[in-house]
């Protein structure tokens, strides 16, 4: 957790009317000093964290010196969702996880940005839960975001997402080995039958009766258990079903009609979680009322997790957005 920093937030009012006396907001910055370059906020997914690049960086293929999100040109900021346990002593865990929504977390992130005296963002980007947060951050302050890039995500939780969140929540609250068992189920949402079948081909471990797919799933479960807390998993899973930019607001098109932000939707053609049909529908609806909305689709056998696998395709999709800004930075230097 190199260079992990903290902002103290006090008396934060949640969407449900309750007040949180204190929220520690942990974050990391990469690249150029704050105030000297365009800012890119990167939101992490369910089991992710603020280490987006560098040692153990989960998006090293996209963020760094000379990469698509070039730290020679941009200030990159990544917040930890409060309650994900990513700090020195696990001091920010949350037990009352059902009190929180994606909108609450988006507001927390903006409070952090304002504390850092950041008023505008070149881009807010994220995959899965991180993309949902990106949608909500943009709707909260549309005049402050130039580019919104939600990847393998959506502006709402569909019935399918809500149903799977319920299954995960039941496992997390009722299993004798909750993190491991919930992860087994989740991994099959994040991949596809084709990806699994192609990789393992019904093979067994040498001299054992255990199938390789069984061993792979169990290993994923225990790896997560060793680095993730149960309360964090419960919170992150719960947040997924609270994703809805229209809740207590106007309808989708009315909300987005007057927002000037460039919206770059990136779907995965085999995503079984945030399915591409929903993203295509969103794109076509938005395109009927505004020009600056764009749609790209990652082609992959790997399903939802393709945004963490298909880096070459994702780089090609993102390159025009970030290279344009780099060119402008160079011209104005």
Automatic annotation (TrEMBL):
Q: Name one GO molecular function term.
A: homoserine O-acetyltransferase activity
Which Gene3D superfamilies does this chain map to?
A: alpha/beta hydrolase (3.40.50.1820)
Q: What class of enzyme is it?
A: transferase
The AB hydrolase-1 domain extends over 38-160
**Keyword Zinc set for record:** no
Return any one Pfam family short name.
Abhydrolase_1
GO BP annotations, alphabetical order: homoserine metabolic process; methionine biosynthetic process
Highest taxon above the source species: Bacteria
Q: What is its EC number?
A: 2.3.1.31
Query: Which keywords annotate this record?
Result: Acyltransferase, Transferase
Q: Active site located where?
A: 128, 271, 304
User: What PANTHER family does the annotation carry?
Assistant: HOMOSERINE O-ACETYLTRANSFERASE
The protein's name: Homoserine O-acetyltransferase
Lineage of the organism: Bacteria, Pseudomonadati, Bacteroidota, Flavobacteriia, Flavobacteriales
